[in-house]
Amino acid sequence: METEAWDDQKQAIWKVLPLHPRPQPLESMTSYITRLAEANGLQSLNELGALAGGMRLYNLKRSPDYPAPLYSGLVQITGHPEERWLDMTFFHLVQHFGCAMNPNSCHNFLAGSLAPSLRYCPICLAEHAPASYSLLWRFLVLPGCIEHGVRFLDQCGHCRSPLPLLRCLPQLTRCPTCQGDLRTCEPSRLSDDDVEPTDRYTNDLKMLLTPSPRPLEKEQAKLIGRRFQLLRQRRDLWIPEVAHLLARDRSVVRDIDYVSRFRQANLGDYLQYAAVLGYSLCEIFDEQSLGDLVAPPSEEQLLDQVKAAIRQLKARGKPILPGNIGDLLGMTGSRLKQYPRVKKLLTRCEKERRQEIFQVDLKREEELVKQVERTLKQLEARGEPIVLQHVCDMVDLSYSYMVMKYPRIRALFQEYQKNRSERGLSPRLDEEAKVQQVQTAINVLVSQGEPVTLRRIRQIVKKDFIRVSTRILYFIRVSIRIFRAYSQQKSLFQAQFGYALPLEPTQSPSIKRLHQMWP
Questions:
Q1: Which residues contact 370 (CB under 8 A, 6 or more apart)?
Q2: 165 φ, ψ to 5°?
Q3: Which pLDDT value is given to residue 502?
Q4: 469 and 511 together in one domain
Q5: Which DSSP category does 138 fall into?
Q6: Which residues make Cβ contacts (< 8 Å) with residue 52, sequence separation at least 6?
Q7: Is 337 contained in some domain?
């Protein structure tokens, strides 16, 4: 047994590289692997992969510094635990936002935020011992190094060649093209306008790339969303306004605030959203503030939030509805009503809103009454038949809606119909004469064998009452349908028997019959 234990220990010792330096703070995995191979005198990274149990570095080259499946071989040959390797990736940053750790989700979240090749500060490489690449250098939001006040270089300062993040030949501080020393390259200074945002974003990214001091919540993304939502309300900003300032779709802002099933927001969206609100991500991820959001709010706190939301809605001229208030607070209207004091406030607001609507309806009804009376007088003055549905069309409202919604309009119509019957049938007699003219025109067309069409009838009558009278127009359309049906039957009859009965002219229907025809 002792011999077997000694053999296992002996094999474990030989599996560890002679030199396995400690990773530097915020050092990238690509930097450490290069530095590890260089420190142990390896000629290529492939040799390191062979020593790590035949590990292939394809995934590391394709997705450099991304969280990846455990490299058990690297853990074994260096003695550094898995957690230490994760510290050299974007693992903690992605975890802070509650994003899934699968490759597709990570790539989508970091899309547009990372440089595809090496960006570096030559002064950092020269002053820091040992020299290493920082994860901060990967982020395009940082124009340069805040420590030295210089802009990052994205190519060799000697031959101007782009620099890959991971090279087969492990040389950390030399250009693979010209072998020039990257530490001696000359960077330019950061402009005064770049200093403040660079300092803010550097602190934000340092916080995000560092393990959280407390365990993260199970629904971390929703917690961060509530924090953004609360700060947006304090700034009196609405989702469409934020979307306009970000030049992004509203769904992206909703994804940050409420977390949709299919995530759309990326790291750049979060950074810009925070800038619009006037906060740094360090302030948004403040441990105390997030802790306050974890515990459900008391009824007193929720009542204050509801009152603030009501003030917001009033200031914007929006209706005070439970759903609108719930949208601002990230809660449903039914959930809000579970709190007695909040429910009482919402009920009072709803009652006030109904009273306001009633007052508006009274004003609208008064305007419509005057408009309908004016229309009726105009039609009577022109001697035209008054059809109530036509009157409603002239004020752009349906007859059923007006008589149901506005009692005074209904009473006005009833009074008009009563007065008209008392005055006699003069309007109907006028309509009777017009029907006679239309029937005469139809008979002329039938006797001449011409097709019965609305256009030909208008040409013969030469009157505009056809357009005005809805019932006459209906009568004409019925006559046209009858003529078309006869024409079809006539064609079939001629084809079968060689002749067809002619269509005889008819008498015009009485006004009573015309009203019976009206649906």
A1: none
A2: -70, -35
A3: 57
A4: yes
A5: G
A6: 71, 73, 74, 76, 77
A7: no
pLDDT tens-digit series, residues 483-493: 777 676 666 65
Report residue 156 as tokens. Answer: 């060799």
Question: What is the rounded distance in angstroms from the CA atom of residue 348 to the CA atom of residue 346?
Answer: 5
Q: What is the pLDDT of residue 442?
A: 78
Contact 190, 198 (CB under 8 A): yes
Which amino acid, residue 403?
V
- Identify the domain containing residue 174 by its residue range: 11-194
Q: Which amino acid belongs to residue 316?
A: R
Residue 61's contacts (CB-CB under 8 Å, 6 or more residues apart) are 166
Q: Residue 494 phi/psi, 5° resolution?
A: -65, -40
DSSP tag of 211: P
Locate 276 and state its tokens.
């619009």
Q: Identify whether the C-beta of residue 117 lies closer than 8 Å to the C-beta of residue 164.
A: yes
* DSSP tag of 176: T
Give pLDDT, residue 150.
96
Answer for the pair 342, 306: CB distance below 8 angstroms, yes or no.
yes
Q: What's the predicted TM-score (pTM) here?
A: 0.64
> What Cα–Cα distance (Å) separates residue 234 from each residue in 204, 312, 392, 438?
22, 10, 47, 70
Give yes or no for a contact between 172 and 153, defined as CB atoms under 8 angstroms apart: no
Tell me the sheet residues that pair with 114.
139
Taking the C-alpha atoms of residue 322 and residue 334, their distance in angstroms, rounded to an integer, is 8
State both tokens at 146.
């805040």
Cα separation, 420 vs 412, in Å, equals 12
304 part of a folded domain: no
Residue 120, strand partner residues: 153
Pair (378, 413) in one structural domain: yes
Does the residue 393 lie in any domain?
yes
Residue 301 lies in a domain: no
* Residue stretches of the chain with pLDDT short of 70: 1-15, 57-59, 69-71, 217, 295-297, 330-331, 357-361, 382-390, 393, 396, 399, 403, 417-433, 462-474, 486, 488-519
